[in-house]
Design brief:
Layout lengths: L6 H11 L2 H16 L2 E2 L7 H5 L7 E5 L24 H14 L10 H4 L3 E5 L4 E2 L11 H15 L4 E5 H5 L11 E5 L16 H11 L8
Parallel strand pairs: 2-3, 2-5, 5-6
Antiparallel strand pairs: 1-4
């Protein structure tokens, strides 16, 4: 399993890679990729960390699972590859940005441009078997990504955590609320979007917090 992490991430995550659970997880993932169709591509499993370095990190968005249909997942939560139709949740994210910031919905659903500005787009589980949602859950990924959140909370200051839906909100306990800002809203999926996702204004609020912390705002 290719990790190719930048030094800034390696310094705080190397101890996780050396733990028995991560070795078991690695063996599982290597076997799955050898014997099943899995997403994202193996060299994109850690894309969230490779597009957003720890030193530059300003915002964290937490998802649950990679997309499990062909050519969708690119290693960043909610993001799809260029030219791929926007999945329903991403469609609703773009709709909210359009009304919140009065800008047009982009053609591409690839969120690499957010990551490059310091937005960590972190799924709790970094891999999935094709067409089988949740198939790589409870294999060790959640232990790893929980530790990522804890380390960000410990090492950084004034990070904005965007927690959408009950699953993401459950990560609040890993974050030092004295040092960081947490914004919560219903999940942007069609099931939850009408219960408060639309009108949540998380994108303008995030930029307001970043300005207050004298950080560059995000071009959503």
């Amino acid at each position: 399993m290719q990790r190719n992490l930048s030094e800034s991430w390696k310094n705080i995550l190397q101890q996780e890679f050396d733990k028995p659970y991560f070795k078991d997880l690695t063996n599982f993932v290597v076997s799955e990729y050898a014997n099943q169709e899995c997403f994202p591509k193996e060299d994109e499993i850690f894309a969230a960390f490779n597009f957003c370095f720890l030193d530059d990190l300003k915002v964290v968005i937490i998802g649950q699972d990679p997309y499990h249909d062909k050519n969708q997942a690119n290693g960043l939560c909610f993001s799809v590859k260029d030219g791929i139709k926007h999945p329903p949740s991403l469609k609703n994210i773009f709709k909210e940005i359009a009304t919140d910031l009065n800008q047009e919905i982009p053609e591409s659903g690839n969120l690499e441009k957010w990551a490059e500005q310091g937005v960590l787009l972190l799924n709790a589980t970094l891999t999935v078997r094709a067409h089988e949602a949740g198939s790589h859950q409870k294999k060790g990924w959640e232990t790893f990504t929980d530790e990522v959140i804890k380390q960000i909370s410990k090492e950084k200051e004034n990070v904005v955590f965007l927690l959408w839906g009950k699953f993401a909100e459950s990560k609040t306990k890993l974050i030092d609320v004295e040092k960081h800002t947490i914004l919560t809203a219903p999940h942007p999926s069609p099931l939850g979007a009408w219960r408060g996702w639309f009108g949540s204004k998380h994108f303008s609020k995030t930029n307001a917090f970043l300005q207050k912390s004298q950080k560059a705002t995000i071009k959503w």
